[in-house]
Design goal:
Serine Threonine Protein Phosphatase 5, Tetratricopeptide repeat; mainly alpha
């Protein structure tokens, strides 16, 4: 019994006690290390604040100056925006010269001119992306022709008139308008429009044949059957392939036959 008690005391004194001391020392070291790191970080934060304060005192932090400069440039751009983005190159050049005078400081003048040139480039890019008058006219012509196929002649005429405003020298638009007017029983209007198409001497062979056939229909529809057939025959003599197309066009045959009978 005494031997066991002595063994436990010996175990405690030789193993557990040193182990406890080591753990206590480790805990103390960790605590001191963490505290040191916190103190070091705090010192860094203080130094950073002092640096910012010093930069402000020395005028090295110029946020206010930048804000004021940007405000001056923005005000100038807003005030002269119309001239800056004008299609008149002379007006744009005048604004550039004015900006060079208003902004005497070199960095500020460079920034102002950069913004002005960026706006001018953006306007130029938008203009280049916009479709031309001819492109818009072709779009209106196609829309009108599709409406003719759908038998919506009134709306077709609106598109065709828009096409002719944009491109009045397009014989295809005049031909399509003449046909829409013919279908709406507007013989005189159709005759006037097909005359415009003929006067423009369409170079496209297919369009030329359509114009001749439509002209014959329209002449027949206004009681000028003899003139219509005479014109058609002259067309067939000049373009032999037109004869087959004329025979297949039931509208042409019907219109001229009804009036001539």
């Amino acid at each position: 019994m005494l031997a066991r008690k002595a063994l436990r005391q010996d175990y405690f004194s030789k193993i557990l006690m040193p182990l406890a001391v080591v753990l206590l020392a480790a805990a103390t070291f960790y605590s001191n290390s963490t505290m040191a790191e916190r103190q070091h970080q705090l010192a860094l934060d203080v130094h950073k604040m002092q640096l910012l304060e010093k930069e402000g005192q020395l005028g090295l932090r110029n946020e206010d100056a930048k804000a004021a400069r940007n405000e001056r440039i923005s005000s100038f751009v807003v005030q002269h925006f119309t001239s800056i983005t004008s299609e008149d190159s002379a007006a744009s050049e005048d604004i550039i010269a004015l900006a060079a005078t208003v902004f005497s400081d070199e960095p500020e003048r460079t920034l102002a001119l950069g913004k002005i040139n960026a706006l001018r480039s953006a306007r130029k890019a938008r203009v280049e992306r916009q479709p031309s008058a001819k492109d818009r006219a072709d779009y209106q012509l196609v829309a009108g022709q599709r409406l003719i196929v759908a038998n919506n002649f009134q709306l077709a005429l609106e598109h065709l008139d828009a096409a002719l405003i944009l491109d009045p020298l397009n014989p295809s638009s005049w031909n399509s308008k003449a046909y829409a007017q013919f279908r709406m029983k507007d013989g005189q209007g159709a005759l006037s429009s097909i005359s415009e198409a003929i006067s423009l001497s369409p170079s496209d062979a297919r369009l030329h044949r359509f114009v001749i056939i439509n002209a014959a229909k329209i002449l027949c529809s206004v009681g000028r059957t003899e003139d219509g057939l005479s014109y058609l025959n002259s067309g067939i003599a000049a373009i032999p392939s037109l004869a087959g197309e004329a025979r297949k066009d039931k509208e042409l045959t019907s219109t001229c036959s009804l009036i001539s009978s």
